[in-house]
Design brief:
alpha/beta, Rossmann fold, 32% helix, Phosphoglycerate dehydrogenase-like enzyme, globular, 11 helices, 5-stranded parallel β-sheet, oxidoreductase
């Protein structure tokens, strides 16, 4: 059995699971860097029976799956992966399994970005190293309004921290009811009101055809000129051009972004030149604790599949 682990950017996969448990005679290959264009990906992966992939780092559309004749098992970290065509896998008889996760690290990163923006931590840290002292005024969060686009597990965790800071927390999502919001101690408002009245907007929705572009030019245009915008969910939820234009023109106070349309971020990305931003390289789920669960469960998935009793199966909706 030939097994490949993809996109191990931090070179930790071999040390976070006991791969010696693979059946005798198995061969394990670990790819650290992205494999590149689709032709290069297909060529590199063609020999493998089993692939372990990291979330949405390498997409697996039908066109690629059709070029992997030996593939029998695809394991993705996490419980879902929108970059895998599950219908194409099912048509080819390829088993797809997921893994568990631990905690809510993305909620923690969202607060890291909010605080970095509100307290101007990156800018003041750079200024200090350059010999300057207290170059600007920062902002208080207490008494301000936090608007959450999405109030699932992550959004609720972000809400609790905002409440601890004394913020007025409101939320909106396509399916959110006033009753569900009240359970989290949050007021449900309409989408336009959320963007028009919030001092901080943080996005916590799952990307789907229904939510793609849910934050568009109208929503961004309604924001206060001092408001902060944070996205730790998925780039496809937001109109990138509208957000970039608002930042360039100073029509919003700043943005903290962890997710991008193309990842890793290209050297010519527009984001690298935008003012009033704090950027992180999709770190929301990248914690030692999460990775330990990812790779441990991935190995368990392989062994269970090999034994004829696959677990954590993912199938087309």
């Amino acid at each position: 059995m030939r097994v490949a682990v993809l996109d191990d950017y931090q070179e930790v996969a071999r040390g976070l699971a006991d791969w010696s448990q693979l059946p005798e005679g198995s061969d394990l290959t670990v790819f650290h860097a992205p494999l590149g264009e689709p032709d290069a990906v297909a060529t590199a992966l063609e020999p493998f029976d089993v692939l372990v992939i990291m979330r949405e780092r390498t997409p697996f559309p039908a066109a690629l799956i059709e070029r992997l004749p030996n593939l029998k098992l695809l394991v993705t970290t996490g419980a879902r992966n929108n970059a895998v065509d599950l219908h194409a896998c099912a048509a080819r008889g390829i088993t797809v399994c997921g893994t568990g996760m631990v905690g809510t690290p993305t909620a923690e990163l969202a607060w890291g970005l909010i605080l970095a923006l509100a307290k101007r931590i990156p800018a003041e840290e750079r200024a200090l190293r350059e010999g300057r002292w207290q170059t600007c005024l920062t902002g208080d969060l207490g008494g301000k309004r936090l608007g959450l686009v999405g109030l699932g597990k992550l959004g609720t965790k972000v809400a609790r921290v905002g409440q601890a800071f004394g913020m007025d927390v409101v939320a909106w999502s396509p399916n959110l009811t006033a009753e569900r919001a009240a359970e989290a101690g949050v007021a449900r408002v309409e989408k336009r009101e959320l963007f028009a009245t919030s001092d901080v907007v943080s996005v916590h929705l799952v990307l789907s055809e229904r939510t793609r572009g849910v934050v568009g030019a109208a929503e961004i245009g309604a924001m206060k000129p001092t408001a902060l915008f944070v996205n730790t969910s998925r780039a496809g939820l937001v109109d990138e051009a509208a957000l970039a234009d608002a930042l360039r023109q100073g029509r919003i106070g700043g943005a903290g972004i962890d997710v991008f349309p193309i990842e890793p971020l290209p050297a010519d990305s527009l984001w690298l030149d935008l003012p009033n931003t704090v950027l992180t390289p999709h770190l929301g789920y990248v914690t030692r604790e999460n990775y330990a669960v990812f790779y441990r469960d991935a190995l368990a998935d392989i062994l269970a599949w090999r034994a004829g009793a696959p677990v954590r199966l993912l199938s087309p909706g």
